[in-house]
Amino acid sequence: MALVSGKQILEEAKKKGYGVGAYNVNNMEQIQAIMAAAKETQSPVIIQASRGALKYSNFTYLGYLMKAAIIENPDIPIVMHLDHGNSLESAIKAIDLGFSSVMIDGSLLEDGKTASTYDYNIKVTRSVVEYAHARGVSVEAEIGTLGGIEDGVGSGKIHLTDPKEAERFVNETDVDSLAIAIGTSHGAYKFKGAANLAFDVLKEIRALIDIPIVLHGASSVPKELTGEVNKYGGKMPGATGVPMSNLQEAIKLGVSKINVDTDGRLALTAAIRKVFTESPEKFDPRDYLGPARTALTNLIITKMKDFGTAGHARDYAPKSLEDIKKLYLSK
Length: 331
Ligand SMILES: O=C(CO)COP(=O)(O)O
Ligand SMILES: O=C[C@H](O)COP(=O)(O)O
Ligand SMILES: [Zn+2]
Ligand SMILES: [Zn+2]
Known about the structure:
binds zinc ion, metal-binding
């Protein structure tokens, strides 16, 4: 079986200095596309489902599709990761489904919107770490709030990760990886002008903590994709993302996990819009979901090469969840 923990894949990536993309999935075609790209480029891979994605699929549907990816790809190290868990309950639900890694985003309250306090974050993160580690499952936490630097650091809306606070947080929670805020945000509208990331903050954090660092909101929103969407009737004026060169710089400075959802959505949407525009007589879902799947595969192949993940699938013998559990319990 190719299921591995988040800790295993990310520690390996950190040691070798490459990035691993964590790609969001909602359906079969997305999972197949990502796995086809991983196989083609021989990359370890993280497939992640958000709370919303799990709920949309009534949990088991998406959980079992993700497991199918593991059965189909015995030679590829795969992490099944919960993206943006918001409570111990959400983590337990994912772990019960067989996930090997969970995020607890305690930087926000359970509503997923309101910024929390440091103490709240510590408490909820610790509860997830205790439950997850006893079962061999890795935990990603988050400190700081996402948002563009232009949106006003310190305005209450966003705040970049405080390196000293990050150091304390890691020591107090025993998490396996940490998502930080350095100016990225979720979605297709990240920057008002040019991309602006706080690399100095990233450097400081890297110097103070020793676990893998995670970057959310890392889609590049390439002009070719939004151009295609707009060309075929979409409306996404002014969409911007994080240029690949900035992501490569971030990887160099110590980011190991790179979260990508928006770019995948754009690739699917562009391909589907194209079919609908060029072949309005088509109505078989395979006629538009098939090309969408191919477009997503190609996008992820490029990312796997650009992040440096390509070729690293066989670097290590994946451990079983049982072995990983022993590792945590012997600490
Ligand atoms: O961070 C993400 C998922 O957790 C996705 O970010 P993007 O919206 O930039 O793809
Ligand atoms: O972090 C956000 C991810 O892009 C997942 O988005 P979602 O909650 O709409 O599934
Ligand atoms: Zn967050
Ligand atoms: Zn995110």
